[in-house]
Specification:
alpha/beta
């Protein structure tokens, strides 16, 4: 990155400072006027009012897409302990979806969250437009989700993974109309959608209906790369609260290069690398909730420290992020979040794992060590099995040129 590009990034990040000060002012003097009450004790996460309803929501939400696993299954002992710690700290917003953990995420909700009073937590799930084949799937899938979660109703319910093509498909199946009927019957409280696409498409969908909450991917790497900043501005201008997914880009903004990590450690040795990314997202005033896909107890504990209370970034800290971002970009890392939407590959290639190995090498891991892992993978899972069919290109929310990277990995790891 040359000096001009660095200054552009620095100015972009620094320009958010007035917004952060607005957010900080909004937090002062706010009471614990939660409409979702539980027996909370000890330090509490920062909450924000939801529109003008008198209701507040935790600024930190528990994303149930990356729950801890053991032997390929959700590790209930650890995950349930994480839920207990979250609830005790007032982190009572839980986000799941039909496809997360192959359906086990929603079943986890039904087995664990139902041990708490239903009025004590917020639950969001989503209609998987990409997996639907007909309008009949609306009722079939929604009924299955209610049975899995045992929740009785969803506080928020989203059209999942909208882009131009999925929005057209949802309209052809009458999915929004179905959701409105469920809302009228009390099975859904508020409507929204999650989005992976361009700001122009987002604005078109956002104007179609008076949505209650919209979920977008937002982090300091994607602010310009994936036009997250423009998406945030669209929703803010339209008065729609924002739910943030991938604030750490699937862990990418924790697994930074040594050079980028050194920038953060020099600025504040006591702060975790993750806290910088979370504070960047949470400091924006129109952010209602920042989802963290926590997969270990230490993730939960670190995040609770970051949000109890949230301290918005200072101007100097925004410049620190710009400096770290400049150092990270020198590695040329692939922006994969390991969401696994590209899976299954028709040929059996484990795309996220191959990209993760490539990023580790770009981040400084000796190729020899990466090859030890690569060579131990089943042959069909390795990048060399890619036939460039392009099926993954239609599925990747990050618009990564996956076949090109598979060819690069196959050559370099041979």
């Amino acid at each position: 990155m040359d000096r001009r590009e660095f200054i552009k990034d620095a100015l972009t990040v620094a320009a958010l400072a007035p917004l952060a000060r607005m957010a900080g002012a909004a937090e002062k003097g706010k009471g614990d006027d939660m409409d979702k009450k539980a027996n909370y004790t000890g330090t509490q996460v920062t909450r924000r009012p939801y529109r003008n309803t008198g209701m507040t929501m935790p600024l930190l939400g528990f994303g149930l897409m990356r729950l801890p696993q053991k032997d390929g299954k959700v590790d209930y002992a650890i995950a349930e302990a994480m839920v207990a710690k979250a609830m005790a700290a007032g982190c009572n917003y839980f986000d799941t979806a039909y496809m997360y953990h192959g359906g086990e995420s929603e079943r986890f909700v039904g087995n664990v969250l139902t041990k708490y009073p239903r009025e004590s937590y917020y639950l969001t799930s989503k209609m998987p437009i990409a997996m639907m084949n007909s309008a009949d799937d609306n009722e079939r899938i929604f009924k299955e989700q209610l049975e899995r979660t045992k929740a009785g109703y969803f506080d928020f319910y989203f059209l999942h993974w909208l882009n131009a093509a999925h929005w057209e498909k949802a309209q052809s199946f009458g999915t929004l109309e179905f959701m409105k009927r469920m809302q009228a019957e009390g099975r859904i409280r508020r409507l929204g959608f999650s989005f992976h696409g361009e700001p122009e498409t987002l604005e078109k969908i956002a104007k179609f209906h008076p949505w209650d909450l919209v979920q977008i991917q937002l982090n300091y790497l994607d602010w310009e790369l994936c036009r997250s900043g423009e998406q945030y501005e669209v929703l803010t201008r339209l008065g729609i609260p924002v739910s943030v997914m991938e604030p750490l880009k699937g862990g990418t903004l924790v697994r930074l290069t040594p050079e980028a990590k050194a920038v953060f450690e020099k600025a504040n040795p006591k702060a975790s690398v993750a806290s910088w990314g979370l504070r960047f997202a949470a400091g924006l005033p129109n952010i209602q909730v920042v989802l963290s896909g926590m997969s270990a107890m230490e993730h939960m504990e670190d995040n609770l420290r970051t949000f109890s209370p949230l301290v918005p970034l200072s101007d100097a800290e925004r410049m620190t992020i710009a400096e770290a971002l400049a150092a990270y970009r020198k590695s040329g890392a692939v922006p994969c979040t390991a969401c696994r939407y590209c899976s299954p590959c028709p040929m059996g290639v484990d795309i996220p794992r191959n990209l993760a190995l490539l990023n580790q090498v770009k981040g400084g891991l000796p190729l020899f060590h990466a090859k030890l892992v690569y060579d131990a993978m089943k042959e069909k899972e390795r990048a060399l099995s890619c036939v460039s069919c392009g099926a993954c290109l239609k599925k990747c929310p990050q618009q990564i040129r996956i076949p090109d990277f598979m060819a690069q990995i196959a050559k370099n790891f041979a």
